[in-house]
Amino acid sequence: MSQLIYQLKLKKKAIFILGVVLSLLYIAPFLMVFLNSFKDKFEVILNPLNWPKVLSLYNYRQAWQEMNYVRSFLNSLVITTLSVGSLIVFSSMFAYFLQRNRNKFTKTTLFILVASMIVPFQALMIPFVAIYAQFVNLNNRLALIIFYQGFGVAMSTFLYHGFIAKVPREIDEAASVDGANDFVIFWRIIFPMLKPITATVAIVNTLWIWNDFLLPRLVLNQASQTLPLSTYGFYGQYVQEYGQLMAGLILAVIPIIFLFIFLQRKFISGISAGAVK
Amino acid sequence: MMLKNPLIKKYAYFGLIPSIFFLSILAYPFVQGAYLTFTNWNGFGYTKVIGFPNYLHAVQDPVFWSTIWFTVKFVIGSVIAVNAVAFGLALLVTSKLKSSNVFRTFFFIPNLIGGIALGVIWQFIFNNILTGLSHKFALPFFKSSLLGTTGGAYWALILVTVWQSSGYMMIIYITGLVSIDNEVLEAAKVDGASALRTLWNIKMPLMVQAFTISLFLTLRNGFMAYDVNLSLTGGGPFRTTELVSMHVYNEAFSYGHFGSGQAKAVIMFIFVALAALLQVGVSKRLEANS
Amino acid sequence: MKNTKKLVALAISSMVGISLLVTAPAHSAACSSRTKFTMEGTIKREIEQQFMSAVKDYNPSQSCYTLEVYPNHPSSDTFLSIVTPKYAAHNAATIMYALQEIPQMADKVIGWNGSPLAGLVPSNLLAAATIKGKIVGIPSTVEAFGLLYNKAVLDKAGVDPTKIATRSDLEAAFKALQAKGFNAIHFSDVWWSLGAHFMNEYFTHAGATSSARLKVLDSLANGSKNLSNDPTWNDYVATFDLLKKYSDNTNPTFQDTEFLNSVADLASGKTGFLFQGNWAEPNLLQADPKGSYGIMNLPMNNDPKGYGNDSIAVGVPGYFMIDRIDSTAAQRQGAKDFLTWLYTSPAGQHHVADAAGQNGAGGMGFIPVYNGFKVQAATYMAGAIAKYVGANKTLEWVNTYFPAGGQNIYGDLGQKYMVGKITAADYAKGIQDAWKGKPKTWRGEAVSN
Q: Which residues of A touch C (CB under 8 A)?
């Protein structure tokens, strides 16, 4: 018996060590970037593994300025919050309508939405640019938020649809007998029951929109740029400001990592809710 | 008038706005794009419908075919690698260690960061850190950057994709693993089944759904990968590691071939659709069997 | 085109002393309201702050126009990806700046023929921007590429760069460097260096006159050229082989960061030569402020009197164009006024030619090309280039005529040849295939889809 317990302990220890090693591998690239974020560009190239010769915050000051950090951060924040918020509102209502009124029209609509999820953005980017050219490169954050509705509504509606199917119809019916109208039924009674899947929709879309590069690059310009765009600014025609780029990367990833650490439980349960249809 | 029908009225309230967004922003450009491939469009405008020359031009381009082939290899490699690693991580994290929550956090963090930043970080790791380590300790490998050769760059793309998305898929697998009824596992233990047997014969069949979702997501991400490609390899060396998305973008905006670029985009969509149908079909059959 | 070199000489010698009289642009009396006009980007990202400080001086210097600059895009965005949507939206910027997309832009921008500003530019510098007789744009500056060297290293090895006249002289210099324990040369693998600049070494030596060189382009576009039979091509390949043999860049990464590696390599004093252009100078000085770096010719064959063996490639990196479709007459007038101010007023000239300093201080560090420039170019390499120009020892940038995206393809081929993935014959064939059927923009042919 003690032999068995000993073996079990050994196994646990092995798994633990494996976990530690893997965790280090997953985090090591960030540490290397952090280490090099204090060096000038030639030091980065020549001695990437050494400690910085001088510990100076120069790169961070430069990156902060060059990225226009506060404005880029606020742009990212506003665009992500409003886009995700309205995606939740529109797609939850849409999904509710489609799920509760099953007919040829709603079934076809759902099918088209699901099919559209595999349309690669590149397949419509070029005509998209031509059609919506007047909103492109015009510093138009509202246009970007609306574009995200168009590109995000299919996936979000699909997620909600699957979840609403598990909410018994009797709940709607009981409420409607009490005389509540559709809006009230949905917002007062149904929507609160959708919390787990709302978390999923929020997380999936936040990760996408916060980090998106291609669409903001088409729609925004430097004056309204988001964090991912601003980090690309360290690339010149010939030369990269490598040290400042490293500092910029650290600055760019800090907000989302903090958000994750604070909301970790919600993140994990949110993804799980989406995984069991 | 129309609003008299209660269903239409309901639709107007609940579905009209998202429908308009969807149709105008996604569906219309898609249809318009397909139409433009049959015209002599040059990015600034078109004057006439010309039929199939854009498609002819697209399929006659050997670089396009090597791009498709490279993309297919990338999708196969990344789907297998991401899912294998993610499943392994899920097993590790669910093995009832005290520190498993901490591990889970670490594994998930790369997923929070956009592809552009990840590509830039890893480009630096491959070009400077790994070669630096190799020189410092006279290692027989990583003497030169992985990104310098086509084969090396392929594995670099796979590695970064695994690093980026295995955390997310891990959570889906964790969900699948914890949803398995404990009684079933207890019964297997009583029957004296080995851990490996339990995993293969009991756990995995009971979580087919998690595999379906995870496979679909990795497949889709693989075909649509762009950000990491742009910032990690930039298509190099010698334009041999361009994935389809990047190829389409370059064709239009670097070379000015708007018509054939869009034709390639349409062909790309057909490929993705076929792969998705195939995967969903196979998975459905597996789910039905299990 | 006979006197082209003299004209460049004239233009550039003006900056080393001879100044010509220029009449200032006639400003109409104070305007009642300001017209806003726009510019796409700041020429290049590296000089963004210096360019913006020129704009900051320009706007209050007169009362008629306000220039607003659209911010730079990420460098991975191509010119076409920026301007096509804007034209579709009828919202193009008034001033745009490009090089190889000039043929695509020819019918969308104004002609500069007969304008005072174009009159100040040596006509050969306008050739690349002239489509069917229409001067589509005016140049920003000239840049030069050739062999850069670290003076201190060459001195220690006893190599005198002015004595290198042939390819075997160059090999002797390489050997002398290696004998003293230095690396001979860093042959950069970066795609734009191989695809545009090194590739140009073939095209610019392919004929001693402009018309002869353009005939080579004709025959490539017609598909009738067999490069392997061309002695200049074989010299080009032999030069490639020589640089490769003595290069310390033995494990190419083919990454854009390679440029920084190559600069660090030359500046650190490990290596004697680097094939690059004068745009590397600010970075070299940043890596080692005490270093002194020169630029010299790359001899292509063993004939000391061979065409171009004593010359460096000098050309215009980009042209300013003024939109004529979406802009108003007043906006176009404003655009001309700004460019005239920038290149002819004393304040503007300082912004153009003063050396770029740290953190956006100083000017753009351009080599002046407009007649009548009173401000001298500030850097050592600019002076060296001016000497080549003054001595009539310049080679044409035929790469200006490369079709859009062409330099990427030639760069890929050069990279493959560098690591031995293809043979010289494959290299030649790849170049021929890439050119075949391309529109002859140098003959004014339109670019179709």
A: 41-42, 45-46, 129-130, 133-138, 217-218, 221-223, 229, 232-233, 235-240, 242
Domain check: are C188 and C112 in the same one?
Answer: no
Domain residues for the domain of C229 are: 144-314+396-436
Residue of C nearest to A136 (CA): C85
Clarify whether residues C138 and C168 are in a common domain: no
Answer yes or no: do A97 and B14 touch at CB < 8 A.
yes
Please tell me the predicted confidence (pLDDT) of residue C3.
44
Cα–Cα distance measured from residue C187 to residue C419, given in angstroms and rounded to the nearest whole number: 12
Comparison of pLDDT for C274 and C371, the residue scoring more:
C274
From chain A, the residues in CB contact with B176 under 8 A are 275
Q: State how far the alpha carbon of C354 is from the alpha carbons of A236, A237, C160, C293, in Å.
A: 20, 20, 30, 19
Q: Which of B204, B175, B197 is nearest to B84 (CA)?
A: B204
- The pLDDT of residue A224 is 79
Q: Which residues form the domain of A110?
A: 68-275
pLDDT of residue B16: 94
CB contact under 8 A, A137 and C46: no
Flag whether A42 is in a domain: no
pTM for the full predicted model: 0.83
Pairs of CB atoms within 8 A across A/C:
83
Residues 6+ apart with CB under 8 A from A81: none
Peptide bond into A29 cis (omega under 30): no
Residue A120 lies in a domain: yes
pLDDT for B28 beyond 70:
yes
Quote the pLDDT of residue A139. Answer: 67
Q: Which residue bears the tokens 């509606």?
A: A157
Please indicate, yes or no, if residue C96 is contained in any of the structural domains: yes
State mean pLDDT over A148-159.
94
Q: For B37-56, how does the pLDDT look when each residue is reduced to its tens digit (9 = 90+)?
A: 999 887 777 888 898 999 99
Residues A152 and A203 in one domain: yes
HSE at residue A131, side-chain half, CA atoms within 13 A, is 18
What pLDDT does residue C26 have? Answer: 46
Q: Which long-range contacts (CB under 8 A, 24 or more apart) does C78-83 make?
A: C78/B253, C78/B254, C80/B43, C80/B252, C80/B253, C80/B254, C80/B256, C80/C104, C80/C404, C81/B252, C81/B253, C81/B254, C82/A137, C82/C40, C82/C41, C83/C40
Q: Are residues A77 and A169 in the same domain?
A: yes
Question: Are A15 and A78 members of one domain?
Answer: no
Domain at B55-289: CATH code: 1.10.3720.10
Q: Is residue C384 part of a domain?
A: no
Residue A144 lies in a domain: yes
Q: Name every chain B residue with its beta carbon within 8 A of the beta carbon of A115.
A: 273
